[in-house]
Amino acid sequence: MSNQDHMEKQEFNFTVYTENHVGLLNRIATIFSRRKMNVESLNTSPSEIEGIHRFNIVIIETEEVVHKLAKQIEKQVEVLKVYYHTNKDVIWQEMALYKVPTDIIAEKALVERLLRENGARAVVIRKDYTVFETTGHREETDNLLKVLQSFELIEFVRSARIAIIKDSEGFNRKLREFEKAEPGNETIESRDLNTRNNVFSM
Amino acid sequence: MLTQEKLVPELLADKKTITGSEALIISLLNEGVDTIFGYPGGAIMPVYDALYDYMDRFNHVLVRHEQGGIHAGQGYARASGKVGVVFATSGPGATNLITGLADAQIDSTPLVCITGQVYAQLLGTDAFQEADVVSISAPVTKWNYQITDACEIPGVLAKAFYLAKSGRPGPVLIDITKNAQLQPFDCVAYKPCSHVRSYRPKPIIRKEYVAQAAELINQAKKPFVLWGQGVILGSAEQEFKAFIEKSGIPAAWTILGAGAIPSDHPQNVGMLGMHGNYGPNVLTNECDVLIAIGMRFDDRVTGRLDKYAKQAKVIHLDIDPSEIDKNVKTTVPVWGDCKETLPLLTALVEEKSHTEWLQKFNTYHQKEVEEVMQDELHPTSGEITMGEVMQQLNELTNGDAIIVSDVGQNQMVACRYAKLNHTRSNITSGGLGTMGFALPAAIGAKLGAPDRTVIAFAGDGGIQMTIQELGTIMQSDIDVKIVIVNNQFLGMVRQWQQLFHEKRYSFVDITSPDYVKVADGYGIPGKKVSERENLRNSLQEMLQHKGAYLLEVMVTKENNVFPMVPQGCSVSEIRLK
Ligand SMILES: Cc1ncc(C[n+]2csc(CCOP(=O)(O)OP(=O)(O)O)c2C)c(N)n1
Predict the structure, then answer these.
(1) Considering only CA atoms, which of B330, B359, B360 is closest in space to residue B206?
(2) B32 within 8 A of B58, measured Cβ to Cβ
(3) Residues of the domain holding A119
(4) Domain with A146 in it: what CATH number?
(5) Which residues of B touch A192 (CB under 8 A)?
(6) What is the tens place of the pLDDT at every residue in B542-577?
(7) Is B286 within 8 Å of A171 (Cβ atoms)?
(8) CB contact under 8 A, B329 and A200
(9) Which of A2, A153, A171, B571 is least surrounded by CB atoms within 10 angstroms?
(10) Which of B135, B203, B312 sits opposite A188 (nearest CB)?
(11) Mean per-residue pLDDT for B213-241?
(12) How many domains does the structure of chain A reveal?
């Protein structure tokens, strides 16, 4: 990561592997809220390993701050591991649903073309309304939103982001290592070892 | 120590049907708990009912307020090194614990708090005395959990104790619904916990970083050690002493680290931070290698961060990886328990004495003695000063007492001047700065270290916040010496108003009851002293008295604590007046 990336605020994607524990969501949420930080998106789901949960969290911050947040999240008892990545290091998607009046959309739009152009599809078509769905990056779901605003859009919803880490081999091996090493041999790298001669602080 | 078998035959026998409450009590016995600070109520009655059968096994101290209970638990843990155990009922009982939980969380104090909760089927119905304490306490606990099924009790309790005391210690809260307390179940043998899948108490030690740290230290001309409570929490006092004695490095402490080596150790150069000593603050910005051991660079220690030790390379030893680089960027991080990392480091550092560098600290110290300490500790005229009270106590106890200070000027004076010969002797609310801490914490400290003299040292403001705990002292007959230094002001706030708000004294003059009469009402002897010539005798009388004693000392009204690093200033801008 270049130095500029390090200092600039941008979207970061946290991937958090946890035990499935009531109350953990609250504990993780307060790590952001106590610093008055807005969480852009939060998704919880199962992971590739049974019994291990996976959070995807998106926030806009500098790498410096994100690094500290990651350590605070990892400090929670039920958290196994936290990774964070910029958008270019993950493959990510968000899904959106749009409800529009069927008569208006049928009358005024070239529906076929509109769907094609936006990579969308109709999931429900009724007499009174139609629901479209599209999946993609924020700009893509936003685009269709803009278009449909002019067709008396009734309802819109976008899902949280889910992201897959590009150069991850999954968590299986990591978890096995983590559990084998006893007690607790998590390797923590200092990002800046030997690169910093002077103390510097925020 | 009794063996486990003698302690709890109940659980070592084969399966036995018991209630959740009894399982809780037996779990506590298995963890070696013998002291509980608590207060009963509706939602925890089954636990108290089970306790009735085990009265001879526990010293349950009935406090006067749950905040007093948890501060007592903290004092107990800090003095003894054991886990403090606190009981409270649901709703108001549980919410009264919050200040103490926050205090224990920020000061890394191991506690297990048990709260009662309404029946599981009533959760979320705004039932009588229902409060969502698991959510409320989440940000101020290391871990918390709600039990709704008795079968979980032994396992969760084992986990609670393990988490509270392992790694970086902290408070754990277990909320148990009333139905789980009452529920009979087949309890099998108690298994202590030594592993939690997702939790690693200690980071792996990286030998190469230890080597790099040693190299930096060996090259240093002006190395400086800052130590904190990590040394005490890790029981690494000996390892720490060996390290500084071999390396010859001057060492200064945070208020929670005080006492890890004796005050009069020649390499102990004093206190860091806002009201710390002159030399350690100024020379932080002159050293070439700063070695931080089990401390977290609190803003009260660092002052203005962008002017803090910019010239120095920083080595940071800490058990908590999230502390590394949190406030001050490190050159070399040494993750791990300092009990293990210090000996590795000691083996690699060269034997040195750094005499000239140490002398610099002494020179600053002389200046501080002349300009601040002389008048504070040995005044010859005018009213009594807080410092002189502490000084007399030092002479009379020879530095062997446990000093439990409150918050404010009294705390800064106590921490600055208390002579401490032993570790675990300076008990104070460091991170949270909780007024009202001293009196209840002193109760706990006395029970945690029954052979030591325990002195609560509080201001007229703080003592009134938890003065109800005199009732606990009376009922449980606890031998604490209570010194109230009465300046008739909320002194520390008044000091700031004088220095930074043009002396606009806004709601800082505070009246006091007749403390001697109040103490008398609780059957505790006491005395008030205002004249210098009576001070020493009165302190002597207090110390010689068998049992609790309250001494109110009238001190100068408008004295200020100096030196001071004003908020927002660099440590080198420390003021002597
Ligand atoms: C619970 C709580 N409320 C308020 C404060 C803010 N505060 C810090 S020091 C102080 C004054 C303390 O006065 P006193 O107990 O008389 O002690 P002194 O400073 O005079 O020694 C106050 C109000 C605090 N630290 N804790």
Answers:
(1) B330
(2) no
(3) 91-158
(4) 3.30.70.1150
(5) 325, 329
(6) 999 999 999 999 999 999 999 999 999 999 999 999
(7) no
(8) yes
(9) A2
(10) B203
(11) 98
(12) 1
CB of B424 less than 8 A from some CB of A = no
| In a domain? residue A82 | no
Q: Which residues neighbour A165 within 8 Å (Cβ) at sequence distance 6 or greater?
A: A15, A83, A85, A89, A90
For residue B510, give the ligand 1 atom closest to its CA. 16
Q: Ligand 1 centroid to A43 CA: how many Å? A: 44
Domains defined for chain B, CATH in brackets: 4-186 (3.40.50.970), 207-360 (3.40.50.1220), 383-555 (3.40.50.970)
With contacts defined as CB-CB under 8 Å, which chain B residues touch A72? Answer: 322
Strand partners, A136: A94
Q: What is the pLDDT of residue A6?
A: 67
- B473 CA to middle of ligand 1, Å? 23
Query: Angle at Cα B46 formed by Cα B42 and Cα B49, nearest 5°?
Result: 110
**A-B C-beta contacts closer than 8 Å:** 105
CB proximity under 8 Å: B 274-333 to A: 290, 305-306, 308-314, 320-322, 324-333
> Does the beta carbon of A158 lie under 8 angstroms from any beta carbon of chain B?
no
Query: Per-residue DSSP letters for A132-157?
Result: EEEEE-HHHHHHHHHHHHTTT--EEE
Q: Which residue has the higher pLDDT, A37 or A21?
A: A37
Q: Which residue has the tokens 């969480």?
A: A39
Q: Is residue A118 part of a domain?
A: yes
Say how many Å lie between the CA of residue B426 and the centre of ligand 1: 18
pLDDT tens profile B432-483: 999 999 999 999 999 999 999 999 999 999 999 999 999 999 999 999 999 9
Dihedral class, residue B399 (left if φ above 0, else alpha if ψ from -120 to 50, else beta): left
Q: Could you tell me if B78 and B109 are in contact, meaning their C-beta atoms sit under 8 angstroms apart?
A: yes
- The CA distance from B251 to B280, in Å, is 8
User: Residue B309: which of A184, A199, A202 has the nearest Cβ?
Assistant: A199
With tokens 């409570």, the residue in question is: B229
B128 is annotated as an active-site residue: yes
H-helix segments, B87-196 = 92-95, 98-106, 133-137, 153-165, 178-182
What is the C-alpha to C-alpha distance for residues B338 and B171, in angstroms, rounded to an integer?
Answer: 21
Q: What token pair was written down for B499? A: 């220095």
Give pLDDT tens digits for A143-160.
999 999 999 999 999 999
Instruction: Give the distance from CA B216 to its chain's centroid.
Output: 32
B306 interaction partners in chain A (CB closer than 8 Å): 201
Answer yes or no: is the C-beta of B236 below 6 A from any ligand 1 atom.
no
**Residues facing B271 on adjacent strands:** B253
CB of A19 within 8 A of CB of A51?
yes
**A150 in a structural domain:** yes
Written as six digits, the tokens of B560 are 């200020």
pLDDT for the residue numbered A83: 96
Residue B268 has pLDDT above 50, yes or no: yes
User: Is residue B62 within a helix (H) or strand (E), and if so which, with residue range?
Assistant: strand B59-62
C-alpha dihedral sign at B535, B539, B542, B545:
negative
Beta-carbon contacts of residue B419 (< 8 Å; ≥ 6 apart): B263, B264, B394, B397, B398, B399
Assess if residue A60 is contained within a domain: no
Nearest CA among B527, B524, B425 for reference residue B78? B425
Alpha-carbon torsion angle B318, B324, B329, B334, nearest 10 = 40
ipTM over 0.95: no
Which secondary structure element, helix H or strand E, spans residue A54, and what is its range? strand A52-61
In short, whether B387's Cβ falls inside 6 Å of ligand 1 is no
Q: Which of B159, B165, B178, B313 is catalytic?
A: B178
- Please enumerate in sequence order all residues whose Cβ is within 8 A of that of A112, keeping only pairs 6 or more positions apart, or say none: none
Cβ of B198 under 8 Å from any chain A Cβ? yes
Strands (E), B413-472: 426-427, 454-459
